[in-house]
Write a structure and sequence with these properties.
Largest sheet: 6 strands, parallel
Strand content: 5-15%
Oligomer: single chain
Radius of gyration: 26 Å
């Protein structure tokens, strides 16, 4: 294919690349408009009958987050295709989230050939550097254009990109990969050429499209074996489970290994709301740990500070839990699922195993899986359980007549059926579910994009996740949803069902929970500088996009509203709350819960 490029040569190269990606397991392509990317766009359309599903988007940022949701739900990377120039810059927020969240993502950007770079040519920018800080790998086409590459070179490029996005080998976890692909003109093939190429492609067997086996990246055995990575199940300890970031395929083994360890050790399990572990049979979880460890009750005696800690995945966001962990002088071991990067901002762990809990458990001393929990460990678990029961009874009483956001989290956790996936947006929704959800609620997959904890792409991510999982409920604040208003444009292409529960508290409610307001109040314009309430009717905005919605007047009407919304392909439920009142309620509940937990005779966190 060397020599002067032609539109058909560009198209054939694009088809070869995308077909190699499809054979390697790529199932979804999200396409954004552009001229330089025309060969990739046409190639995606030609390959769609062979099993490559095509989604289209006018907003590159929204497209990338939709692809991120697809990757989160399926465990396989989805690809985003953009044109050159500033279109590439709009991919950065999703790339950052994919990087920190360990989520597979393929970013395919068209570019000018080398002879048009650095000479003032239109739309010729240093886009190959735009995403470098967040991507696992940057792959580039031939400088003179993709048509100059032999089929074998294109297939190798595709193979390496998929491996890097999935985290296959090399000790890296899944993440974003950037393929920057130059195309020289002419870019647009004629109708006759397209018809001929389409006939050729349709004549080929529709084989492929089955994802290749994905293994967890291998870390050096020294991280997973030996004394540094061992914990003694015959001595007291706790398990702290953070947000789940492993692949869907790794989940069953993870849960079974945790059941085995808890049966053997008797250790209490402090489970983050996004761990997905709450409510699962065979696991005894402590959900209210953030309330139990209230301010003033986190100091530990020398004895209580010697507990062992098995930490699973990234650290939960609870500052109280972090302070308590820092007070423990016993050994701490961190086990992550396919993520060998440092995940210990407290710098307390003495060993980290990135191959998952099942591998870690298999590497423990032979007698770790035999025997029963000691009386000492069971007594410790009992203290935590007593505190949990008493705090939950307090919440039940105090929230029974409430209409605010803590009560909403509790009601939603009860009303949504078992197995229905939920996505909790940053910032207040995920924190409220963490502290106030009903521990007796049925188990369900819980999702959150907490890698970088931003509000970028909230609605688009939810749409992609709903498409991958079949149905989803998104719980979001008003600013997070408005920040990604273009996400409503996915309505016409969405195949899964999505119910959006919008908490409309007139601005950034999370800032009410921070020590920002001043006395006197006039010293700082809180509403303008932080809350930033926007005069937009969310129901009207959704309606403009053809999305039906309802305002939920009281929590008593929530059950019937959810039943209606779940029958729609995409629906919006709006619940109006008072953010200032809810901030005061949260503080009151934390104070009461901390005092209640501290009143236990021996305390919930002391070693007997």
């Amino acid at each position: 294919m060397a020599g002067s490029p032609s539109s058909l040569a560009n198209l054939r190269a694009a088809v070869t690349l995308l077909e190699a990606l499809r054979r390697g397991g790529l199932a979804h392509v999200v396409l954004c408009p552009g001229s330089r990317s025309a060969p990739l766009a046409v190639a995606a359309g030609l390959l769609e009958p062979g099993g490559l599903r095509l989604h289209t988007a006018i907003d590159e940022r929204s497209a990338a987050f939709f692809a991120l949701g697809l990757g989160r739900g399926s465990g396989q990377p989805a690809a985003v295709i953009t044109t050159s120039g500033t279109a590439v810059a709009n991919l950065l927020p999703a790339a950052v989230e994919a990087d920190y969240g360990g989520l597979p993502l393929l970013l395919l950007t068209a570019d000018r050939p080398a002879q048009l770079k650095g000479c003032g040519a239109n739309q010729s920018v240093n886009q190959e550097a735009f995403l470098a800080c967040s991507c696992r790998w940057l792959g580039t086409g031939a400088p003179e254009g993709l048509s100059a590459m032999a089929p074998g070179e294109l297939e190798s490029l595709a193979s390496e990109a998929l491996a890097a996005a999935r985290g296959d080998g090399g000790g890296h976890c899944a993440g974003p990969v950037h393929l920057n692909l130059p195309f020289d003109e002419p870019l647009h093939a004629g109708g006759g050429e397209l018809t001929q190429l389409a006939a050729t492609l349709l004549g080929q067997p529709a084989a492929g499209g089955v994802p290749t086996a994905v293994g967890s990246p291998a870390l050096s055995p020294r991280f997973c074996k030996g004394d540094a990575a061992s914990l003694d199940p015959d001595q007291p300890g706790v398990v702290v489970a953070g947000p789940w970031r492993g692949s869907p395929a790794a989940w069953p083994a993870h849960v079974e290994a945790l059941r085995r360890w808890q049966r053997r050790s008797g250790w209490p399990l402090l489970a983050d709301a996004l761990s997905g572990l709450r409510g699962l049979p065979g696991l005894d979880t402590v959900n209210a740990y953030d309330l139990i460890l209230a301010e003033g009750s986190t100091s530990a005696t020398a004895e209580s500070g010697a507990l062992q800690v098995l930490r699973l995945g990234p650290l939960p966001a609870s500052r109280r839990l972090q302070h308590w962990l820092a007070a423990q002088s016993g050994p701490q071991v961190l086990v992550s699922e396919g993520d060998g990067r440092p995940l210990d901002p407290l710098r307390l762990v003495r060993a980290q195993c990135g191959d998952g809990l099942a591998v870690w458990l298999a590497g423990q001393p032979q007698d770790s899986g035999a025997g029963e929990a000691t009386a000492e460990s069971l007594a410790l678990a009992s203290h935590w359980r007593q505190a949990e029961v008493r705090v939950q009874a307090l919440l039940e009483q105090e929230l029974a007549e409430e209409e605010g956001e803590p009560a909403l989290a509790r009601q939603l956790s009860r009303l949504l059926p078992a197995g229905l996936p939920v996505l909790l947006a940053n910032s207040s929704p995920v924190r409220d579910w963490e502290s106030f959800a009903d521990p007796g609620a049925p188990p369900r997959p819980m999702h959150g994009f907490r890698g970088a904890s931003g509000i970028d792409g909230t609605l688009s991510s939810a749409c992609g996740l709903a498409d991958a999982l079949g149905e989803l409920v998104l719980v979001s604040g008003d600013l997070a949803l408005l920040h990604d208003a273009n996400g409503w444009l996915w309505r016409s292409q969405l195949t899964g069902r999505l119910t959006v529960v919008l908490i409309d508290n007139g601005g950034g409610g999370i800032f009410e929970q921070l020590p920002i307001r001043t006395e006197p109040a006039a010293a700082l314009d809180f509403e303008r500088l932080f809350a930033m309430a926007q005069p937009v009717d969310p129901l009207a905005l959704a309606a403009v996009h053809g999305v039906p919605g309802r305002r939920v007047p009281t929590l008593a009407a929530l059950e019937s509203s959810l039943a209606w919304a779940r029958q729609q392909p995409l629906a919006l439920l709006v619940i109006t709350t008072d953010r200032r009142r809810d901030a005061a309620l949260r503080q009151r509940l934390r104070t009461m819960a901390g005092a209640l937990a501290a009143s236990l005779a021996t305390g919930p966190i002391t070693t007997p």
